[in-house]
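Worked example

This section walks through a single chain of length 236. The input is the sequence exactly as stored; nothing has been trimmed or padded.
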Amino acid sequence: MSTGRIFTGILLLAFGVLWLLQQLGLLTSGLGELLSTYWPLILIVWAIQLIFRRGARWFGLLGLMIGVLFQLKTLGIIEHLSWGILWPLVIILIALRLLLPRRWYTTFAHRSRPAWANHRSTLTTHRIEHASFFASANLKIASNPFEGAELFVLFGGIEVDARQAVLSPGERAKVELINLFGGVELCIPEGWQVEIHGIPIFGGWKDHTVRSNGGGPAPILEIEAILLFGGLEVKH
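Given that input, the structure is written out below as tokens.
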């Protein structure tokens, strides 16, 4: 079943249930009031659908940002909002387009399985690709050998347990992370050496790992992170 049919079905189902509850007198708020408050969700769902469609993902990201802002306004979290925000959002998208490697917006649109609901999974592939949108995920990595990961978070969270992953002494693996308004927790085996670099924008990372003082070379985990109002925590 296509993603478009799923989203359209969910919207129609929600609308039908709300209408039925109103007709049965079980819903105190009027349907018009609910629609006036939560209509941006229609734009948000439509935009998310576009993100996974070839040739429309950047337009979908723009629609997603606009939908989220209008939803915040209808909920009273933001008081003043106008179409003047359009051009700053376009500039932000252009900046992201320049900053992100091409593999990011080709990989997640066509090869990875995005998480729309909380879930747990154990991964054994050499390279991990995962995207989490408005949801949380618990990933357990048992790759042998572990070659790296590409993670994308948008208004969500990912807990990654890589303590069973195998990386030979002196070998390197790279984790590429884009975190927008989310949180990521990464647990790695003791003895691994961590190198973190990237671009934190109103976000940041914390490295709680302990460097090994042994004589031999240690496995090296390189983390390249772009954090926009997001956080990253690395620990054993």
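What to look for: The CA atoms of residues 18 and 24 lie 10 Å apart.
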